Amino acid sequence: MAAGPSNAEKPIDKRLASVLPGWGLHVVGIAVLFLFAAMFVPKCQRYFEEFELDLPAVTVWIIALSRVVSDYWFLVFPVVALLDGVLAILVALLPSGVSWVRGLWFWGIFLLIGLLLGAGVVSMLLAFVSLINSL
Length: 135
Hints:
The protein is mainly α. The chain has one domain (11-134). The protein has helices at 12-50, 57-93, 100-134.
């Protein structure tokens, strides 16, 4: 069975098109993270302020990060999406011998998004546990 053409032998437009779906999924994942930071965290923050809670450090960090995302989403979102797009182009131009980099690029962003969302949810839960204990 003959092997297919290596990445270097494929036309550049086909190599770029091969990373486009992954980049689109990344943009959707980044948007979900931004929506979490811009909508869910501020609602929780209002509850915490109302009850004057002493918040864990991770919760304070998530709230601060959420504030930056909420205030500057129109700058941060395009910059993050463009940086990921540049990485996608670089990954597409790599020779086929380092195809593991494509997997690292594709799955790495979802790991990062999952970790940030997980940290956000856990930090909000810690603060709510503190609220329940204070009642």
